[in-house]
């Protein structure tokens, strides 16, 4: 085999080096061309977009369109959009992004949602902090709302401290935390001395600890958060452990919702006595204990609407006895859920009664019929069909049926067997000169009536309207309350 000379090896090495250099230059040129191509495509896309009719709209109108679309987004739930509309809009095009970022009202709803699988990510807190900061910056000087929906041991103090720096424009706060080993202390530390002059709505739910809760003493009804002041606060919901540990100022509150916590009667009385402007009160599976036998009813001079949810699975609680604790001379609306008993008591000013999951016996129903002489609107579900039969029967010397002033009925989840009861009652009340004028039906009830060929007859007899069986509370709230859990099973 012939010997390869050093000169030949040197020459091929030089050739390889020259080719590699040429390749590097070509790749660099290709990258430059690719960059220029991307820029040209982007420019072409922007120019093409500008020919689209929507881009001919004034920015102000496009901004209003964004606001309208955002307002029509679904309520958060299993089928809701995972990416908020404002984020989607800002990623469509450079112009859309410019309009979105230039519309502060698009960024006034701050949602912090964390699920256990997200806690495995190393930078989940950094991501949440960055998003919250972006919303705070982009919302400018607008009032904003914040919502925390957290399952698992997620630290909320840093985010709350970040938001608290903008407390002057904080409008609504919602916190829902399940399995919160340290959340109570973190929330208290972030909010206990804060002043929130624009805050109108506070809703806090913390799941109970495994060891259970304690009963509040008479001195525990002082504010524990927002002690710097919340002069605009009108709506308060405190549930679970939050009722015992994170109570906001209540003196100016008009709507109060208490849920899922054992409360002594003394604390309950102290709390309500300190809310002179209370208009709406909601009690969800509350256990008011240790009421003295000689106690006088709690006077609620302005209370207009009362909701009470019992617990049919707990025989130790007697929710129907809660009415003995109140004196509400101008009460107009009463909602009862999961009741199986009704005390002998009068509600002379109530004109709207709603029953949900109340399987009253015959005796309970007769007591209820006597209790509401001024009733004009009655709402019920499938749990009490026999009441329909009673509403069509004449009683007493007058020959009038019960609730002679009744003109509006709402029915949900009607069963096929109850169609005849409903139609007969409507016919009988017409013949007794106490006719119903308006009937609300949910989808299931309309389907059942249609299958029985009675829906068309009803529509010819009185005004029939649709509703979903869920009643907003209070009716004049004016915004979506995504934490409403009163109707949940």
Automatic annotation (TrEMBL):
Keywords: Coiled coil. Residues 9-36 form a coiled coil. This is F-box domain-containing protein.
């Amino acid at each position: 085999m012939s010997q390869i000379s050093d000169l030949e090896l040197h020459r091929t090495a030089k050739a390889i080096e020259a080719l590699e250099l040429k390749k590097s230059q070509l790749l660099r040129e290709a990258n430059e061309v690719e960059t220029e191509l991307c820029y040209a495509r982007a420019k072409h896309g922007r120019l093409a977009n500008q020919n689209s009719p929507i881009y001919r709209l004034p920015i102000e109108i496009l901004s209003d369109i964004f606001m309208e679309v955002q307002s029509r987004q679904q309520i958060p739930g299993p089928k809701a959009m995972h990416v908020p509309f404002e984020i989607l809009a800002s990623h469509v095009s450079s112009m859309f992004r410019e309009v979105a970022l230039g519309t502060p009202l698009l960024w006034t709803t701050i949602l912090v949602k964390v699920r256990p699988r997200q806690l495995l990510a190393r930078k989940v807190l950094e991501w949440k902090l960055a998003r919250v900061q972006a919303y705070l910056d982009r919302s400018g000087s607008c009032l904003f709302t914040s919502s925390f929906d957290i399952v698992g041991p997620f630290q909320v103090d840093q985010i709350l401290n970040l938001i608290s720096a903008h407390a002057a424009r904080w409008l609504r706060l919602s916190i829902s935390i399940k399995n919160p080993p340290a959340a109570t202390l973190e929330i208290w530390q972030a909010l206990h001395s804060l002043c929130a002059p624009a805050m109108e709505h506070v809703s806090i739910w913390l799941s109970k600890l495994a060891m259970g809760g304690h009963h509040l003493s008479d001195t525990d009804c002082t504010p524990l958060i927002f002690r710097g002041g919340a002069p605009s606060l009108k709506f308060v919901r405190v549930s679970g452990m939050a009722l015992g540990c994170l109570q906001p100022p209540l003196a100016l509150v008009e709507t109060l919702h208490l849920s899922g916590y054992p409360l002594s009667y003394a604390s309950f009385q102290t709390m309500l006595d300190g809310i002179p402007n209370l208009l709406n009160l909601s009690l969800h599976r509350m256990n008011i204990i240790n009421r003295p036998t000689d106690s006088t009813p709690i006077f609620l001079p302005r209370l207009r609407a009362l909701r009470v949810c019992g617990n049919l699975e707990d025989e130790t609680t007697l929710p129907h006895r809660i009415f003995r604790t109140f004196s509400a001379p101008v009460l107009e609306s009463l909602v009862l859920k999961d009741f199986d008993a009704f005390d002998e008591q009068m509600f002379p000013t109530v004109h709207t009664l709603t029953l949900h999951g109340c399987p009253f016996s015959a005796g309970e129903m007769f007591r209820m019929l006597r209790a509401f002489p001024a009733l004009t609107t009655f709402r019920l579900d499938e749990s009490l069909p026999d009441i329909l039969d009673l509403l069509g029967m004449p009683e007493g010397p007058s020959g009038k049926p019960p609730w002679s002033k009744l003109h509006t009925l709402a029915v949900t989840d009607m069963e096929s067997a109850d169609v005849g009861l409903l139609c007969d009652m409507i016919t009988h009340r017409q013949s007794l000169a106490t006719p119903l004028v308006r009937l609300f039906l949910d989808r299931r009830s309309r389907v059942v009536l249609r299958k029985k060929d009675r829906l068309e007859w009803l529509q010819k007899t009185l005004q029939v309207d649709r509703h979903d069986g869920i009643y907003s509370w209070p009716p004049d709230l004016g915004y979506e309350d995504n934490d409403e859990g009163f109707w949940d099973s």
